[in-house]
Every structure is written in C-alpha cells, then in structure tokens.
Amino acid sequence: MRKDEAGVSLAFQLFRAKTMIVPVVQRWKNGRDRYRPAGEVIDTSKYEIAEMVHDRECKEFVCRNHYSRSYPAARFRYGLYRSGELVGAAVFSHPCNDKVLSVFETDPLESTELGRFVLDDSVEANGESWFLARCFEDLRKKGIKGVVSFSDPMSRTTMCGEGEGGQQVIFGGHIGVIYQAHNGIYLGRGTARTLKLLPDGTVFSDRAISKIRNRERGWRYAASILVRYGADVLAENDDSREWLDCWLPVLTRNSRHKGNHKYVWALDRKVRKHLPESQAYPKVLDGLTYQGLKMRQEKLIWM
Fold first, then answer.
1. How many CA atoms lie within 13 Å of 300's alpha carbon, on the beta-carbon side?
2. Residue 1 to residues 4, 245, 299: CA-CA distances in angstroms?
C-alpha cells in the first residue's frame, strides 16, 4: 500500500482528518469503489464520447460496475470509449417525483437527473470532469436547462464476512467530490430515511417492497431477490404481506440514512439567476470508522 513521505498511510490520514478531501478520485469496478491518484491528466485524443441510443450496452456496463447494481429509466445516455471499448457511462434520467426538479422553475422535461455516472478505474483521474462537460454541452443543445444529481455519503457493510466484527465494507460512500470540482451548487441533504440492507450490503428498496406487497408489475423479480438470500418462493396464492412480514426481518437489517447530498447545475443563464447560492460543500462521510477504513486500506490505493 502506498504511503506519503512521512510513511503514514492515506487511509489513516483519512481517518485522522475525517475528511474525503484527499488526493484520490473515486471510481467503481464490479460494484466496489476504487481510487486513482488525483492530478492525472486525461489524453483526450485516446477517447471518444458518443450518445447511446439503446439501453442494452449502457445498462450492462452500469449494472456490472456501479455500487447500486441498478439502472434508472434513461432519457439520455452517453458512453466514453477508448479504442472502441466502453470505459464510462453517464445516464440522465427523470426522477420519480417532479419535485426533485422544481428548483429550476421550468417545465420538468426541460431538466434531468444525472442518475448514474460510472467510469472504469483505468481512465485517468480528471476524466470525469472532461466527460461530464461534454455531456452538458450536448444536453444544452437538446434544450435541457438544468441537471440535478445526488451523492450517497453513507458507507455500507455486509452482514457477515471477513474483517473485524464479521463485517466487510463494500461501499465507502461518496460526498460528490467530482460534482464539487464541476462547480455544482450544493443544496443540502435530501430526506432522511431508513434503508433495508440485504446481507451483501445492497439496498432492498421501498419500491421493491411495495411491488411485492401490492403485486404490482415487477413483483416476481423483486421477490426473487429475497429468494436468492434464502426466502421461500412467493407463490401466486400466498399472502404477500405475510410473506414480507416473515422474511424482511430475517434477511434485511435497518440502517438509518441522513439523506443524500444534492447538487444542481444550470445549463441556461436565465435558470441560473433563479437558483439559490450554494451551501458549503460537505467534507465528511457518514458512518466511516477506523475499523472500516482498516479493512479497506489495501483497496483505497491503488488498483
């Protein structure tokens, strides 16, 4: 593991300072966070950016690499390619609730959410800024006037596994460093809520629970996630509410979340005039402990 000139590991510095303002850039690979040393300069001549018309290639890349293992309802998709290989994806979607976009004071369809932003850890550290700027340029041409995005600062652990306490940190959390570097307006935190975490540390969403409870479209797939972790198969004639009451306490654990960090960008000058001033950027992750960092030291730098 790399150390600084004083021989102190970066992970320990991170714990000591309780901050994410460190000389690294966060990436995602196979659902786990990875890091590259900051200060690298991308050779843009080696890369191409293209709008992706269909979901298949983009969805496969995002679901394989992003920590959420999920894919939003895309409106616009952009791929970052190197020698013909997809090494990054930006997915702009429409949020479930139009209120998320109300800050722009425009028609909701004139703004969008950056729902997923994933770069392979082989891309140089400042690749995000360059890629995102090109995406914004194209969105502006399409008449999009505002973009919103969220960062999740809460770390996640498995229910059991190697490491202290039988848990393994699978997601360190992120405070939106790339959004700050791209001059996003920080609007504070979203709504606090209680998450239900599966044994591998991923979130079993309220929407999935609602689909099962009310037998809405997609309930079979949602139920199959719990079956994968040991639940009995939910049959057609079973009471889905009783099934959830039985298996949710066994297979999930509650974790209090203080709310995601919210950032916005105006792509239109008139819209920018209506936006509030940015609050102070967040610098601290939620739920980060020395024990968690100790288990992750070999990962923090430098695949």
1. 23
2. 10, 45, 8
Q: Comparing C-alpha atoms, which of 99, 123, 105 is closest to residue 48?
A: 123
| Confidence tier at 284 by pLDDT (50, 70, 90) | confident
What are the phi and psi torsion angles at 248 (to 5°)? -60, -45
pLDDT digits (tens, 9 = 90+) for 183-222: 999 999 999 999 999 998 888 999 999 999 999 999 999 9
Instruction: Judge contact between 25 and 130, C-beta under 8 A.
Output: no
Total of domains in the chain: 1
| Distances from the Cα of 84 to the Cα of 30, 80, 130, angstroms | 20, 9, 18
pTM of the shown model: 0.79
Q: Is residue 252 part of a domain?
A: no
- Closest C-alpha to 260, from 201, 181, 179: 179
Residue 129 inside a domain? The answer is: yes
CATH code (residue 58): 3.40.630.30
Q: What mean pLDDT is predicted for residues 137-149?
A: 98
